[in-house]
Amino acid sequence: MKTVWLVVALLLSLSVRVAEAGAVNSCNLFAFTGVAEFQLNTMRFLNTGDVIRPNFSFGADGITGGSKGIVDRVRWDLNCLTQGLPCVPAEALVVYDGDSTITSTCPGITWHSNGSGNEITFTATPPLELPGSTPAVCKMAFNAHVAKLPSDGSQSVITVGGFRAGDAHCDNGLASLWTDPLPVWELCPTCKGGAVCNQQTGVCEPGPTPTPSTTHWQCDVCRQVP
């Protein structure tokens, strides 16, 4: 009987070692994109000058063969025809409002950007560490605004955020790639003839009727006065 149990123990030990040898390391880091909560139930269609406040939510899923991830930088492509990183640029409609608008709940981390071009790269100082299996570590947000409406009459802008090669990695030596399209920004049409955009429906509607001017007469000498 002892011999049987010894054989079973040896087989179990061998099975564990084979499973460990066959385990594939993984590095699952993410930067979910979104929009500030105060904008979720406000204007549906944006007009020239309207401010947008995108944000990144950082976290990590399982990290096989390691315990944490490291984020050196994260990217945001402003105006896109495609949903990859880098994206194929579209007409420059949305503009980044600068590092002074950045806020972050990532403790001890300062973010700064390259500040120009269609792809804004935000660098973390020091690099942001994400413990494995921690889906909500912290957030980073910033402002942008609609600089102009589309010249071709389209009514939406695609923007994309995430990690490119070399932006984020895990302590098991693997890199992490992540691409997440932000919510598509719906834009007002260019209204003409005094019409204005209804920012709930995206339809041009007649503007307010101007009050007609009235001519007054003062008649001791009878002259026209404004």
Describe what this molecule looks like in 3D.
It is a single chain. The chain is mainly beta and 226 residues long. It has a single domain, classed as Sandwich (Immunoglobulin-like). A hairpin with a 4-residue loop joins β17 and β18. The longest helix has 21 residues. The N terminus is likely disordered.
Keywords:
Immunoglobulin-like; 18 strands; single chain; disordered N terminus; about 40% strand; mainly beta
Radius of gyration: 28 Å
**C-alpha termini separation:** 116 Å
CATH topology: Immunoglobulin-like
Beta-strand level of the residues, as a percent range? 35-45%
The chain-level structural class is mainly beta
Number of domains: 1
Number of helices: 1
Percent helix range: under 10%
Q: What does the main sheet amount to?
A: 7 strands, antiparallel
Q: Report the CATH C-level class.
A: Mainly Beta
CATH architecture: Sandwich
Shape: elongated
Total DSSP E strands:
18
User: Mean pLDDT score, rounded?
Assistant: 83
Element pattern in H and E? HEEEEEEEEEEEEEEEEEE
Low-pLDDT segments:
1-21
